């Protein structure tokens, strides 16, 4: 049989070649259904019609599905570089960009070919013999910025300081002469962490830290009294621009702007007080340096197991995830999720890559099912869990020195973040919030086949029982994925050690000394105490009893209506202090390997119990303003929100539940009237009739539509989701019943959910390092094959001392009898 000339084959398929437009999404760094790249064996094949990229094992699937035969093959080969190559000195706090740290990334040489399927006929590029259309298309592909690069910020960079709006016209008063050394706070004996107010020259101590160390807040109190806006930290002033990071030669803070800033006239402002900055040497850490220093403290080293001889692990289930820039919250969470049998079965064992690709839409990069399957196979197959040197064919170093490159979850992050504006940024996020959003999206994508939905393995029911002094009761039920636990510090088991430490701490503070990190004693609270606190009776003051037709004190208890396959415990380490100031509890939780929560099972309405009747408080029925469900209000206030805001949220969502009220609250926090008192004389605004008409046109009943719109703040999209996710409530509305009626026993909210015994085994921990969930670092520890393993982004190794007492999220698997 005569062999077809490759050039003739290409010319016969020119109609399937497109020249990309400026708006075209071009993928050329990673396969859209695997983690193959141009550095992989066989290179990467870019479809010259759709501009999607495929590895050598998958490009044939794309040809079968689309019939597109022409591909640009990109292959990268590692260059040999001299071992004594000098390292560049960094000038920016960044990695992988000009001026940043040299992370010794190897250099690669890139080669190109035109490949025509199914015969894999190959033509070289560049070549003047290629048709002009092909040359134009390839040039455009190579010149364009890849879609993967557009959808992520590839380098770590520190936030740049801004010039203060108060610096240029700063008013200076008084005739204070500041000495070059020997400073002391004007209001106490503090001699460290001192700030010079640039208006009047007052030297005062800085803020008190959440753990009691630091200053006594005298500098910020002085600002509140005088309004003088700028202060410079004494001891950070230097003329050495290189030591100061080329941004500013001192640490200047603007109180009205609530941030570290640049004062371009700082030398002039210091000279007013007789300070010659050129003669000063830096003796104190700047605010940024102190934040970085906190990352090297005991907790940081303990959670990351720094200094431990951690043995790297390779193979199936031991693949690291590359940090895309503050994406550790996602990496830690997904490592634990894909260690569960439910997610492993759904996206790995029972679904191969070809099956997912064949059912995916034309662009598989935007399909959650495809990208979850891709991520599962990347993490669990072991294909990418190899020592980095072994992947590029060079000699393999000793095991203890080996490391893996990990896989970059770019496409998964883009898909899962598409419906959440915060997760699409490069800022650090709360791992708990991401976990809940992830499970919600997985549930939606499996709505057509709920029996396949792996998120259900985490779902369970919670029931709250409220008993008022009339002897009658009310029940509220909801579904959740996590059990959020308060930490009762008064249950600490090391009270004597704490008392002794607090005395030493008070003595040191009175002498102007700080307590070293080695001396700090933290409370130790048993997990059993946190669980007991959840089910303990709680008084609800001013509860309106429809039986008594008056306000009284009620008692609320809570329990679970089902026990899920996987139980996730969230430790409420972050609390709100007065003035909405977040504080992280510095506490250890003693967590056993096995727990039994059988006593937390709630049995619902019991024989002899009588439900509270439906009735509004006297005088309120006439005015038609609704009454907030006190149980929901109590839950919200326990999260740190004020009573006023909680009642507003509950009323505006028609007592639909905690989640609905929380969503309303978060979306209305910036409203101008959010802190205004609740108006009792005005009827609440009705639902938008156009929104009602739109949803009714979808086939929903009007009463159900109005209820859903009230519960979701008028959003048509969220109201639609609410209708599908609340079938019991909709059924009640359709029958003319109030979903908040207590005249009949509530329907079993956990019907159809997994259930079983109450004994669980700990298998995963997500720990957080830092002062806020919005900053710091997340690390996962997972029990695999009988041993604990640390997953720290792309680093995977055998854990020596897993921080079981320092977790933020604890993952337990039910022990089946």
TrEMBL record:
Residues 627-668, 686-726 form the UBA domain. Residues 158-277 form the UBP-type domain. Pfam families: UBA, UCH, zf-UBP, zf-UBP_var. It catalyses: Thiol-dependent hydrolysis of ester, thioester, amide, peptide and isopeptide bonds formed by the C-terminal Gly of ubiquitin (a 76-residue protein attached to proteins as an intracellular targeting signal). SMART domains: UBA, ZnF_UBP. It comes from the Eukaryota. InterPro entries: Papain-like_cys_pep_sf, Peptidase_C19_UCH, Ub_carboxyl-term_hydrolase, UBA, UBA-like_sf, Ubiquitinyl_hydrolase, UBP13_Znf-UBP_var, USP. Its EC number is 3.4.19.12. Residues 319-815 form the USP domain. Keywords: Hydrolase, Metal-binding, Protease, Repeat, Thiol protease, Ubl conjugation pathway, Zinc, Zinc-finger. Belongs to the peptidase C19 family. PANTHER family: UBIQUITIN CARBOXYL-TERMINAL HYDROLASE (PTHR21646), UBIQUITIN CARBOXYL-TERMINAL HYDROLASE 14 (PTHR21646:SF10). Recognizes and hydrolyzes the peptide bond at the C-terminal Gly of ubiquitin. Involved in the processing of poly-ubiquitin precursors as well as that of ubiquitinated proteins. This is Ubiquitin carboxyl-terminal hydrolase. It comes from Hibiscus sabdariffa.
């Amino acid at each position: 049989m005569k062999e077809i000339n490759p050039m003739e084959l290409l010319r016969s398929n020119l109609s399937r070649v497109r020249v990309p437009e400026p708006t075209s999404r071009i993928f050329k760094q990673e396969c859209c259904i695997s983690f193959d790249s141009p550095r992989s064996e066989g290179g990467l094949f870019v479809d010259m019609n759709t501009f999607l990229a495929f590895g050598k094992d998958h490009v044939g699937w794309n040809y079968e599905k689309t019939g597109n035969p022409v591909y640009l093959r990109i292959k990268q080969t590692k260059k040999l570089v001299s071992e004594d190559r000098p390292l560049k000195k960094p000038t920016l706090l960044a990695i992988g960009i000009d001026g940043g740290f040299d992370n010794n990334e190897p250099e690669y040489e890139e080669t190109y070919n035109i490949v025509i399927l199914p015969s894999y006929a190959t033509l070289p590029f560049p070549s003047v013999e290629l048709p002009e259309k092909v040359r134009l298309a390839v040039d455009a592909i190579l010149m364009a910025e890849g879609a993967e690069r557009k959808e992520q910020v590839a380098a770590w960079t520190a936030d740049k300081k801004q010039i203060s709006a108060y610096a240029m016209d700063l008013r200076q008063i008084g005739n204070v002469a500041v000495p070059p050394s020997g400073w002391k706070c004007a209001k106490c004996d503090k001699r460290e962490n001192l700030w010079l107010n640039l208006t009047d020259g007052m030297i005062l101590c800085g803020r008190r830290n959440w753990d009691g160390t630091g200053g006594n807040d005298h500098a910020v109190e002085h600002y509140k009294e005088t309004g003088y806006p700028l202060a410079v930290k004494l001891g950070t002033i230097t003329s050495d621009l290189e030591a100061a990071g080329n941004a500013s030669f001192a640490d200047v803070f603007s109180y009205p702007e609530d941030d570290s800033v640049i004062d371009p006239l700082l030398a002039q402002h210091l000279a007013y007080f007789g300070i010659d900055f050129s003669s000063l040497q830096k003796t104190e850490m700047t605010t940024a340096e102190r934040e970085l220093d906190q990352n090297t403290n005991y907790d940081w080293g303990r959670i990351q197991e720094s200094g431990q001889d951690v043995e790297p692990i390779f193979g199936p289930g031991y693949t690291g995830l590359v940090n895309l820039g503050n994406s550790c919250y996602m990496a830690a969470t997904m490592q634990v999720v894909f260690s569960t049998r439910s997610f492993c079965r759904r996206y790995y064992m029972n679904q191969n890559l070809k099956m997912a690709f064949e059912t995916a839409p034309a662009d598989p990069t935007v399909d959650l099912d495809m990208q979850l399957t891709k991520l599962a196979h990347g993490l669990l197959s072991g294909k990418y869990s190899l020592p980095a040197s072994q992947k590029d064919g060079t000699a393999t170093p000793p095991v203890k020195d080996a490391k893996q490159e990990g896989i970059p979850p770019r496409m998964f992050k883009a898909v899962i973040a598409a419906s959440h504006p915060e997760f699409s940024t490069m800022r650090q996020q709360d791992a708990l919030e991401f976990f809940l959003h992830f499970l919600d999206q997985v549930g939606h994508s499996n709505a057509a086949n709920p029996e396949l939905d792996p998120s259900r393995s985490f779902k369970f029911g919670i029931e709250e029982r409220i008993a008022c002094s009339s002897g009658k009761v009310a029940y509220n039920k909801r579904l959740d994925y996590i059990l959020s636990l308060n930490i009762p510090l008064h249950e600490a088991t090391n009270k004597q050690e704490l008392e002794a430490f607090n005395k030493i701490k008070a003595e040191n503070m009175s002498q102007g000394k700080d307590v070293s990190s080695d001396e700090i004693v933290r409370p130790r609270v048993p997990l059993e105490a946190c669980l007991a606190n959840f089910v303990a009776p709680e008084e609800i003051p001013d509860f309106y009893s429809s039986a008594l037709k008056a306000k009284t004190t009620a008692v609320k208890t809570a329990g679970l209506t089902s026990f899920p396959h996987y139980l996730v415990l969230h430790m409420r380490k972050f609390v709100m202090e007065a003035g909405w100031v977040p504080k992280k509890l510095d506490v250890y939780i003693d967590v056993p390997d096995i727990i039994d929560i059988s006593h937390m099972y709630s049995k619902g309405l019991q024989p002899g119990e009588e439900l509270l009747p439906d009735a509004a408080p006297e005088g309120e029925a006439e005015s038609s303003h609704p009454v907030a469900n006190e149980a929901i209000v109590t839950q919200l206030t326990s999260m740190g929100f004020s009573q006023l805001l909680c009642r507003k949220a509950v009323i505006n969502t028609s007592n639909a539940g905690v989640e609905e009220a929380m969503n309303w609250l978060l979306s209305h926090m910036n409203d101008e009237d959010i802190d205004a008192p609740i108006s009792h004389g005005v009827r609440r605004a009705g639902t938008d009739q156009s929104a009602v008409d739109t949803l009714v046109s979808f086939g929903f009943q009007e009463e159900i539509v109005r209820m859903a719109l009230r519960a979701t703040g008028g959003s048509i999209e969220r109201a639609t989701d609410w209708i599908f996710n609340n079938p019991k409530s909709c059924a009640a509305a359709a029958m003319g019943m109030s979903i908040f009626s207590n005249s009949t026993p509530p329907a079993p909210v956990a019907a159809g959910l997994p259930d079983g015994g109450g004994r669980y085994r700990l298998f995963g921990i997500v720990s957080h390092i830092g002062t806020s969930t919005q900053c710091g670092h997340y690390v996962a520890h997972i029990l695999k094959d009988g041993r604990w393993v640390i997953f720290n982004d792309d680093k995977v190794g055998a854990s020596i001392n897993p921080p079981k007492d320092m977790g933020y999220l604890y993952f337990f698997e039910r022990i089946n009898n």
